[in-house]
């Protein structure tokens, strides 16, 4: 447990947190971000958001046409089932 806390403190320090302290309640670790690292975090986050938007666009370009094709195939399959039922009823007479 103590090693985990020390490891967490080291990780927070390496990631740019200026201070890391464990509160007395044991509810977690409170942290404050170094003012110099805030712009770097914002830049990385903006880059990540741009890549996420690009990924979403590419996914939409593939998903929606595929969904439309599947929907049309499902509709055609239902029509064929109805035709088969009608033929069966005609043959039963």
From TrEMBL:
It comes from the Eukaryota. This is Uncharacterized protein. It comes from Brassica cretica.
